[in-house]
Write a structure and sequence with these properties.
205 residues, Rossmann fold, globular, binds guanosine-5'-triphosphate, binds magnesium ion
Length: 205
């Protein structure tokens, strides 16, 4: 049987906070990570759309919570979810208090948005062990629910040489790595999302 295919994605709405977000009836995948790590680019890559989410070389490009409707086709049926692009947290800052570097609205959103089923924490492959990323892991793990999946994904793998790639894989066995400039690595992310949200794992055999 064919594997699920993402066939359509479009922008729905920008929100400032949980209170002005759209209805929470569809399962959501949120992309979080440091400013400039490639959150918006990853959404474009996963959906094969160049400019769906606005990306920029200047950190701080995404300032609102942006919702995108995403449709997969599998087994001749539609499967709908949402991708959520978030503003980045503190650029190159080492944080003691995450709330200080990441806006209050954002913290409230990731904590209380009931429709979030998958957190994708994007990390720069060149700085795989940044303190701020460890802080975020630790922080989210404090309130994550049993029905939510937390995924670490390393971006900008194209910037690593062979030796660095080997070191990364040794440190994080089985980790997911992607390159948005080379457009590689998306398959495993689709697989994880689809498997977690719909319980269908058609990639395993
Ligand atoms: N080489 C390389 N560059 C990338 C990759 N992903 C993103 N970039 C570049 O990194 C910069 C930031 O990308 P964005 O997608 O805007 O990053 P963001 O995390 O959404 O940033 P904010 O919205 O500011 O939080 C852009 O210049 C992208 O072209 C990648 O995998 N490899
Ligand atoms: Mg962005």
């Amino acid at each position: 049987m064919a594997i699920p295919r993402l066939v359509d994605a479009h922008f729905i709405k920008s929100a400032q906070a949980l209170s002005d977000s759209i209805d929470d009836t569809i399962s959501e995948v949120v992309f979080l990570g440091r400013s400039n790590v490639g959150k918006s680019s990853t959404i474009n890559g996963l959906t094969s759309r160049k400019n769906l989410a606005k990306s920029s070389a200047t950190p701080g490009k995404t300032q609102l919570i942006n919702f995108f409707d995403v449709r997969y086709i599998y087994d001749e049926k539609d499967w709908n979810i949402r991708f959520v692009d978030l503003p980045g947290f503190g650029y190159a800052k080492v944080s003691k208090d995450l709330k200080g570097v990441w806006q209050k609205n954002l913290v409230e959103f990731i904590k209380h948005r009931v429709s979030i089923r998958v957190f994708i924490h994007l990390r720069d492959a060149r700085h795989p062990n940044a303190q701020i990323d460890r802080d975020v892991d630790e922080y989210v793990k404090k309130f994550i629910r049993g029905d939510q999946l937390y995924l670490n994904v390393f971006t900008k793998i194209d910037k690593l040489n062979m030796k660095e790639k080997t070191a990364l894989k040794r440190k994080f066995p089985g980790c997911i790595t992607i390159s948005n400039s080379k457009r590689i690595g998306y398959e495993r992310i689709h697989q994880k999302i689809f498997e977690h949200i719909f319980g269908i794992d058609e990639w395993s055999n």
